[in-house]
């Protein structure tokens, strides 16, 4: 029969064993991939959700104030609808890709930290890790382009907003506000024969006060920020996958050397 002191000692050993097991498990968590996955999901969700709604608001503004003839902006409407379908595809792809990269992070982290004593790297595993490194680099470059492209509507809406702010400013001391116009045809959004194609004076002020303009402008800003967050997430993925692939490759060479 065990004494109370022996029982307390056994309990302390059990607690120490559980604590060491938890520390060992936490050591196998790919924190870099986990942070990148959360940031990637958040960025893609913001970009896709806000971008989709902002594109719909942009079509409404153009149809109501700048291009009242449907045939003048028919191509632009088709392009926007195509972009919205592409947004659906981007959201689905990055949801799956983020989960796969997180799983690959767990795999490589376990190999690097050697949580399993009999863990051996294989040629197939190294090839898969190398493929993810290459694909992540390609996606990172592509999202840099997406980030730059998402800044274009922010720039256009900012120009319109700053023009409206200048008209309302008492410092401007404008005598004829009707001479201040915003012509969206110069940006190539709609053709030059679109009517009216531009908004001037009080009409421009009314556009800036609409809920569609206010909502679309801020949603484009959030979508641009989401694209930037996705770029940062892919950069973290690049560093994590490249490091893990290099260590796996070095470990495979070490295994080959120990065989002889």
Describe this structure as you would to a colleague.
One of its GO terms (molecular function) is structural constituent of myelin sheath. Belongs to the myelin proteolipid protein family. Keywords: Membrane, Transmembrane, Transmembrane helix. Strands 1-2 form a two-stranded antiparallel sheet. 27% of the residues are buried. It has helices at residues 4-27, 31-66, 74-113, 123-168, 201-208, 211-259, and strands spanning 181-183, 198-200. The protein starts with a helix and ends with a helix. Helix 2 (31-66) runs antiparallel to helix 3 (74-113). The protein is mostly helical and 260 residues long. The protein is elongated.
- Summarize the amount of helix as a percent range: over 70%
Give the helix/strand class.
mainly alpha
Report the end-to-end length measured between terminal Cα atoms: 53 Å
Largest sheet: 2 strands, antiparallel
Averaged pLDDT: 78
- Strand order, main sheet: write it out: 1-2
């Amino acid at each position: 029969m065990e004494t109370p002191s022996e029982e307390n000692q056994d309990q302390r050993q059990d607690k120490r064993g559980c604590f060491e097991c938890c520390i060992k498990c936490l050591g196998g968590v790919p924190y870099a991939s986990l942070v990148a996955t959360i940031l990637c999901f958040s960025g893609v969700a913001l970009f896709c959700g806000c971008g989709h709604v902002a594109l719909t608001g942009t079509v409404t503004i153009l149809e109501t104030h700048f291009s009242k003839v449907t045939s003048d902006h028919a191509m632009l409407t088709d392009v926007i609808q195509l972009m919205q379908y592409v947004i659906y595809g981007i959201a689905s792809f990055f949801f799956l890709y983020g989960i796969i990269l997180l799983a690959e992070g767990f795999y490589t982290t376990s190999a690097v930290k050697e949580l399993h004593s009999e863990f051996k790297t294989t040629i197939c595993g190294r090839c898969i890790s190398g493929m993810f490194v290459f694909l992540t680099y390609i996606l990172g470059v592509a999202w840099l382009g997406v980030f730059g492209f998402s800044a274009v509507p922010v720039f256009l809406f900012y120009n319109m907003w700053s023009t409206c702010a200048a008209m309302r400013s008492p410092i401007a001391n404008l005598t004829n506000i009707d001479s201040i116009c915003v012509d969206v045809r110069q940006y190539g959004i709609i053709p030059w024969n679109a009517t009216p194609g531009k908004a001037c004076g009080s009409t421009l002020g009314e556009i800036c006060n609409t809920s569609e303009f206010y909502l679309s402008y801020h949603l484009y800003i959030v979508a641009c920020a989401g694209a930037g967050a996705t770029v940062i997430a892919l950069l973290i993925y690049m560093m994590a996958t490249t490091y893990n692939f290099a260590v796996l490759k070095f470990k495979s060479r070490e295994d080959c050397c120990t065989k002889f």
